[in-house]
Write a structure and sequence with these properties.
The complex is a heterodimer of chains A (225) and B (461). Chain A is of the alpha/beta class. Chain A is built from 10 helices and 6 strands; from the N terminus they run H-H-H-E-H-H-E-H-H-E-H-E-H-E-H-E. Chain A folds into 2 domains: 1-37, no CATH class; 38-224, Rossmann fold (3-Layer(aba) Sandwich), CATH 3.40.50. The relative contact order of chain A is 0.15. The model of chain A has no long low-confidence stretch (mean pLDDT 88). Chain B has 3 domains: 4-100, no CATH class; 121-283, Rossmann fold, CATH 3.40.50; 295-460, P-loop containing nucleotide triphosphate hydrolases (Rossmann fold, 3-Layer(aba) Sandwich), CATH 3.40.50.300. Chain B contains 13 helices and 21 strands. The longest helix of chain B has 21 residues, at 440-460. The radius of gyration of chain B is 24 Å and the shape is globular. The model of chain B is unreliable at 1-16 (pLDDT under 50). Classes of the chains: A alpha/beta (225), B alpha/beta (461). At the A-B interface, helix 4 of A face helix 1 of B. Bound molecules: zinc ion (3 copies). The site of one zinc ion has 8 residues of chain B, from loops. One zinc ion is lined by residues 4, 6-7, 9, 31-32, 34-35 of chain A.
C-alpha cells in the first residue's frame, strides 16, 4: 500500500459508490486528503490580472501598477497561495531536496499547459544544481515537453560602482539565452514556468531575455504566489 | 512563543546550514561530507563510505537500513537519495558519509552519581540486573509497571558505565518522553556532559558522554554507544519495525549493552522472552507498593451516531458532573482529533467551560495547555492519545471514551490506565473505559493489568 508523500499515512483509494458512478479512472494519489486540504487554491474570480495574486476583487495590484509605469506588462498566472502548507512543501522539496515531492503538483501544472505555447522552465545555477541534484521547476513539469532556453549567468565579481549605468543594468541580468535553443523559440509564444512568484523580478528578467531573442509573447505560470 | 512547527522548521535550517568544524562532532557519528569543514577531511582518522547501494529495482540506505523502489528516489544524472531518513538531512549516492571511530574521550568528574534517593527492595533487585547487563554487554528487557520508578532503577547502572568511560545513550520513540527525562537525568548526573537531541530541538549537537534522544536521532550515530537504553520501546512508531533494530545496531558498538524498557511488552517481545531469546526482569509493583488501578468497562452503544446528533451518553455526563462537583481532576481520552470539538461543545452547554481544555498532538498550544493542567488552572483535559505516557499529573482519574477505536492499542490503553494512582498520597483512583463493544485490545489491556497485580500481590505476601 502507498503512503502519503507528506505525512506518511497509508493511502486508501476512493471507491465510494458516488466515485464509481462518476466513471473517473482510479487516479493514483500521492497525498492524503488531510494534507491536500492544507493547500489553498487561488480563487480566479478575484485576482490581480497582471501577477495572478489573490485580491478582494479583480484588478491590478499596487506592485503591478509600478511595473506598468515602468512599461512592463508581463502577465502571470499562479495556482496556489504561498501559505504555511506551501512554505513547508517548498522547504522540503527544494531545500531539503526530497525530489519525489515533485509528483504532488505535476498534474496541476499539466492542466495549465497549452499546446500552442513552448514551455521554458526557469533555470537554476550550476552550483545549486550540483548541491540539490535537480531543477525543481523541471521536476514539477513531469513528462511535459520543454525547451531549456535559458542559462543562469555566472556571478560577476566586478564591483557595481566601476560600471556605467548601462553596464550596471546589463550586469543585473541573471539569465542569458542558450544559443542552441534559439531556433526552437524564435517567433514562438512561450509559457515561462517557475515554482514561485515572489517579487516578480526573476521571471521578468527571464521574459526579457526571451523577447530579446525573438520570442513573440511570453506568459508566466508559477505553482504559487 | 514560536509555533512548534516553526521550531521544527528552524531546526531543519540549522541542521542543514551549520558546518562541522570541531573534530569531536564526528566521533561515532556519520555526517554528509559536504557539511564537514574541508580542513578536517584530510585527517587520517576520518573514514568515508558511500551511503546508498543501488540494486536492480531498489536502493538500500546504509544510514537507516531501509529499501526504496528506484522510481521513488532516482535523481537526474544517475544519482539517488534516501527519502526514508530525509528529515535528518538528505543522503545521496554522490556524497560520502564521513565518521571517526568512537574514542571515548571523556573526562570523568566525581561524583558521577549526584542522585541521593533510595530504592525499594524490588527496585534494588532490578537495579542490580541492570548493572550486570551493562558490565557484560547483554541485551535485556525490563518489564516494569507504570509508576514503578524505572528511571531511578537505571541510575546505578548508568553511573557505573560512566565511571568506566563508556558512552551512554537513552532513547525513546517519543519526543515527550525524552523532554520529560532530560532534566531528571541531568540532575542525577550533574557532572557529566549531556546532550538532548530531537527533531524539534534547535540546540546544536555537542560531543557528550550521555545522550538523550529520539530513536529516530539514533540514525545519526555510527557505532558510538557502549550502552543503549530504549525507553517505552513498545510505543509508536517503531514497534514491530525492523527499523528500530537497525537503528539500535548501527548506533551501538559491536560489543555493547542494550536495555529495553517497557510497561506493556508487545507479543513479539513476550514470545522472545518465552523462547529464551531475550532475558527479562520484572517489576510488577509500583514504588508505593499499591496495586495498579483496574479498568472498569461500561458500554455506550452507538455513541458515535449519537455524537453526530449532538448527544453524549448519560453515563459520561454523570461522571463528569460528579467529578466537577467533587473537584476531582481527570483526563478524558477520545479517539480522534475531530471528536474534541463536538464533545467540548456539548459539555459547554451544561458545565462551566473554563474548567477544561482540548489538546491534540500538533496543537500549537499543547505545551501551555499541559502546564495549565499541571498548575491546577484546569480541572480536566479532553485529549487524544498524545498524553498517554510520559506526562504525569498527580491525583488524577481517567476516562477513555470510545475505547474500542483502533487508535487505542493494548499498550496505549495500559499506559492510559497507568496515569492513575502514581503518587503515594493518592495511590488509587478511577479508570473508566466507555466503549461501543468489548474488543480484543480492551480485553488484553484488562488482562495485562490483572496479571501484573497478581504478581504484585505475591510480592506483598
Ligand atoms: Zn498526508
Ligand atoms: Zn499584481
Ligand atoms: Zn535512509
Amino acid at each position: 500500500m502507498d503512503s502519503c508523500l507528506l505525512c506518511n499515512k497509508t493511502l486508501g483509494y476512493d471507491i465510494s459508490l458516488s466515485f464509481l458512478l462518476s466513471f473517473k479512472s482510479l487516479i493514483k494519489k500521492n497525498v492524503c486528503e488531510e494534507c491536500l486540504s492544507r493547500f489553498e487554491r487561488i480563487d480566479k474570480t478575484r485576482i490581480c490580472e497582471a501577477c495572478g495574486r489573490q485580491m478582494d476583487k479583480m484588478g491590478i495590484c499596487n506592485d503591478c501598477q509600478k511595473w506598468h509605469r515602468l512599461g512592463d506588462d508581463f502577465v502571470n498566472e499562479s495556482i496556489f497561495k504561498y501559505n504555511d502548507a506551501m512554505k513547508d512543501f517548498m522547504h522540503r522539496y527544494k531545500f531539503v531536496g526530497d525530489y519525489q515531492l515533485r509528483m504532488i503538483f505535476q498534474n496541476e501544472i499539466r492542466k495549465k499547459i497549452r499546446k500552442e505555447l513552448v514551455v521554458v522552465p526557469i533555470p537554476i545555477s550550476s552550483e545549486t544544481k550540483k548541491e540539490r541534484g535537480f531543477n525543481q521547476v523541471i521536476g514539477l513539469l513531469g513528462d511535459v515537453e520543454y525547451v531549456s532556453a535559458l542559462i543562469v549567468n555566472k556571478k560577476h565579481k566586478t564591483r557595481q560602482s566601476t560600471l556605467n549605468r548601462k553596464e550596471r543594468i546589463h550586469n543585473q541580468q541573471v539569465f542569458s539565452i542558450d544559443e542552441k535553443a534559439i531556433s526552437k523559440i524564435v517567433n514562438q509564444n512561450v509559457l515561462l514556468v517557475d515554482d514561485i512568484y515572489t517579487t516578480g523580478t526573476t521571471i521578468r528578467h527571464a521574459a526579457t531575455v526571451l523577447r530579446q531573442n525573438g520570442v513573440q509573447h511570453v506568459f508566466g505560470l508559477t505553482l504559487c504566489r | 512563543m514560536f509555533h512548534l512547527k516553526n521550531i521544527a522548521f528552524f531546526a531543519y535550517l540549522i541542521m542543514v546550514i551549520i558546518m562541522i568544524n570541531d573534530i569531536s562532532e564526528l566521533y561515532g557519528r556519520h555526517i554528509n561530507e559536504n557539511l564537514v569543514d574541508a580542513s578536517l577531511l584530510n585527517n587520517s582518522i576520518v573514514h568515508k563510505y558511500v551511503p546508498i547501494k543501488v540494486n536492480s529495482n531498489t536502493i538500500y540506505c546504509k544510514r537507516c537500513g531501509q529499501k526504496t523502489p528506484v522510481n521513488r528516489c532516482k535523481l537526474p544524472n544517475n544519482n539517488y537519495y534516501c527519502p526514508v531518513c530525509i528529515n535528518l538531512d538528505r543522503v545521496t549516492k554522490s556524497i560520502p558519509l564521513v565518521y571517526i571511530d568512537e574514542p571515548n574521550d571523556f573526562k570523568i568528574k566525581q561524583p558521577v552519581l549526584t542522585w541521593q534517593g533510595q530504592l525499594t527492595t524490588e527496585q534494588e533487585k532490578c537495579s542490580k540486573d541492570i548493572i550486570d547487563v551493562f558490565n557484560n554487554n547483554k541485551t535485556h528487557l525490563l518489564w516494569a509497571v507504570t509508576g514503578a520508578g524505572k528511571t531511578e532503577m537505571l541510575f546505578k547502572g548508568i553511573a557505573q558505565a560512566l565511571v568506566d568511560s563508556k558512552r551512554v545513550c537513552i532513547a525513546s520513540p517519543r519526543v515527550d518522553v525524552c523532554v520529560e527525562l532530560y532534566p531528571r537525568i541531568k540532575e542525577a548526573f550533574a557532572n557529566t556532559s549531556m546532550v538532548l537531541l530531537h527533531g524539534r530541538n534547535p540546540q546544536p549537537y555537542q560531543y557528550s558522554q550521555l545522550t538523550i534522544c529520539t530513536t529516530h536521532q539514533l540514525l545519526r550515530f555510527y557505532h558510538a554507544f557502549d550502552a543503549l537504553i530504549i525507553d517505552e520501546v513498545d510505543s509508536f512508531p517503531f514497534v514491530n519495525n525492523n527499523g528500530l533494530h537497525f537503528a539500535v545496531d548501527n548506533a551501538t558498538k559491536e560489543k555493547s549493552a542494550k536495555l529495553f524498557l517497557t510497561a506493556t511488552p508487545t507479543n513479539q517481545m513476550t514470545k522472545k522472552i518465552k523462547t529464551n531469546k531475550l532475558s527479562a526482569s520484572y517489576l510488577p509493583i509500583r514504588f508505593h507498593r499499591h496495586l495498579l488501578p483496574e479498568i472498569t468497562l461500561k458500554y455506550t452503544k452507538k455513541w458515535r451516531e449519537n455524537l453526530k446528533k449532538h448527544k453524549l451518553p448519560k453515563i459520561l455526563l454523570h461522571k463528569i458532573e460528579e467529578k466537577i462537583k467533587t473537584n476531582q481532576r481527570f483526563l478524558l481520552f477520545v479517539p480522534r482529533i475531530a471528536d474534541l470539538k463536538p464533545i467540548s461543545d456539548i459539555l459547554a452547554e451544561r458545565f462551566d467551560e473554563s474548567k477544561w481544555e482540548t489538546v491534540f498532538s500538533s496543537d500549537d498550544k499543547r505545551m501551555e495547555k499541559v502546564s495549565d493542567m499541571r498548575e491546577n488552572r484546569k480541572l480536566f483535559l479532553i485529549t487524544t492519545t498524545i498524553l498517554e505516557r510520559g506526562v504525569t499529573f498527580p491525583g488524577i482519574d481517567v476516562i477513555v471514551f470510545g475505547a474500542e477505536d483502533e487508535v487505542f492499542t493494548t499498550s496505549s490503553l495500559v499506559q492510559i490506565a497507568g496515569r492513575v494512582g502514581r503518587k503515594l498520597d493518592r495511590p488509587t483512583g478511577e479508570v473508566l473505559f466507555l466503549a461501543e463493544e468489548n474488543t480484543l485490545t480492551i480485553k488484553s489491556a484488562i488482562n495485562q493489568i490483572r496479571y501484573m497485580n497478581k504478581k504484585a500481590k505475591k510480592l506483598n505476601g
